[in-house]
Fold:
Amino acid sequence: MVSDGALDPGVPGGGQHRSATVAPAPELDMLTAPALVSDVDALVAAGCTAVEVSLADVTFIDSSGLHALVRLKTRYAGPEVAVRVVGATPRVRRVFEIAALGSFLD
Structure:
């Protein structure tokens, strides 16, 4: 699910900052992770410069879900686009910590 944000003035260089929030399926796994990647890629292609992936409703995440999130954060780590992973529940946060990926959560 994608929630498109507003255009925010004040980005260095006089541009506009467009943000969006993506809420993946409650089970972020090998079946749903590709859709998350596609959603974020489409938002960036449409001009979003700040994308938040909200894990607030995620109840299960497997290695495919972890891989998708790490891939997105790595792909969009430059100054032009920022991807943040927010709202992880304690259960989901624990999976990140076990995989030594806790630093990927914002």
Observations:
- The helical segments are 33-45, 63-75, 90-98.
- Residues 4-15 have pLDDT under 50 and may be disordered.
- Residues 33-45 form the longest helix (13 residues).
- DSSP finds three helices and six strands in the chain.
